[in-house]
Design goal:
- The protein has about 190 residues and is an all-beta fold.
- About 0% of the residues lie in helices and about 35% in strands.
- Strand 14 and strand 15 form a beta hairpin.
- It is elongated and about 55 Å long.
């Protein structure tokens, strides 16, 4: 286990492993427990097959731990019983727009510790007078420095976006500025003043 984390106020825990995992054992909720309680679901994510998202009944609090027993890598090597502490991220995830309309499907994000986030979003766009997308954010007042490293991005459009963004508020028509990475249109900076 490389790292474990959870977003503030979220009921999902991310676990990052150093090996590609066998999907059958990695997605078996009985192989895990969070603070002594088994998760309701375990999902293996990403092409690397090293990230597992655990869905838990309640939001983990600072100081939570995860126990893992019987998960195997692709070669069948079992992970011995491991208990590891998790990191609670200060960020919150939310859909911006009209959920069920735009974005049509709810987005999903989880923090797997060590500064890494896995975000799956949807929506028509971050553009024009009303945005529809999934947002992972922290409220801030005043000056700040922020850095984001987009390791990979995919989507149904050449303009699908992963971005660092500052918004005035969480409404779909909020003023904002962002620097976006796209699968085929490069990196672009926008300043939307409505």
């Amino acid at each position: 286990v490389l790292s474990i984390g959870a977003l503030a106020g979220d009921n999902e825990v991310g676990v990052q492993f150093n090996e590609r995992l066998d999907p059958i054992t990695a997605q078996d909720p009985s192989k895990y427990d969070v603070n002594g309680v088994p998760p309701t679901a375990a999902v293996l994510l990403g092409a690397e097959q090293r990230l597992v998202r655990l869905t838990v009944a309640s939001n983990p609090a600072a100081g939570f731990s995860v126990s893992i027993n019987g998960v195997t890598d692709l070669a069948g090597n079992p992970l011995n019983t491991t208990v590891a502490g998790g990191t609670l991220s200060p960020f919150i995830a939310a859909d911006i727009g009209d959920p069920g309309v735009d974005p049509l499907l709810a987005g999903n994000a989880f923090f797997y510790g060590d500064g890494g986030y896995y975000i799956a979003g949807g929506g028509h766009d971050i553009w024009d007078s009303a945005d529809g997308f999934h947002y992972v954010y922290q409220q801030w007042t005043g000056s700040f420095d922020a850095v984001v490293n987009v390791r990979s991005i995919s989507g149904p459009s050449t303009w699908a976006k992963a971005a660092i963004m500052c918004r005035e508020d969480l409404t779909a028509g909020s003023r904002h500025t962002d620097a976006v990475a796209t699968p085929e249109e490069g990196v672009n900076v926008f300043n939307m003043q409505w």
